[in-house]
User: Fold these one by one.
Assistant:
Number 1:
Amino acid sequence: MNLLAMMESGKLKLLKDENLIQSLKSIQYEYVEREGRKTELRIFGNYSHIAEGLIRAAWLAEKDK
């Protein structure tokens, strides 16, 4: 959500890179509900390593401020 908010607000601009676009498109999510526990958000994908790195970098960039 942080990465999305940064892109929508213009704080972050991405290069038009095929691998990056493919990685972002591969991201999937699901809500996991277990009795007696909080609902968890599971994020996964087959080609998600680039997107995961971008998510972590954006979080660190926002945290630094």
Number 2:
Amino acid sequence: MAILTTSGRVALATAIKASTLHLAWGRGLPAWDNDTPREPRSALALTDEIARRKVNAVQYCKPQDDGDIVMLGVRFARSDTPTANLYLRTEFEFNDGLGETIRELGVFLGTQILPNRPAGQTYFLPGDLQSPGTLLAIDYITAIKRGVGARQTFDFVITF
């Protein structure tokens, strides 16, 4: 068995960074409000996807004690030099998913949108997709009820 080298991990991060990424959000299951399950490594899709939005920003980052990106107590700083870590930020707009309860998030690579969608569209319902692409990362979260007047932002750090 071969070991994936640091330079190989940086190469993977670089390939992913050059791709178009989407963050999907979903309803999950109401039972998760009482007992959130662990995310399955074998997942290929969200349990109950609502829609997805093109990721707004993808940047390299590196662990750094005084970094301004905080993920579960670990701090990262943005990096101009390629690293094996990618920082992703997605901003859902005020009217995205109104009235929905969000319990799951998924980062997708290679989503194919139907060709007849308007130019500039960045929020896609499942019916807008020709192919959902590959689920790169999944996260089950504490339920968020989408109401009027709130823009929702999600940050991720994916380490290769």
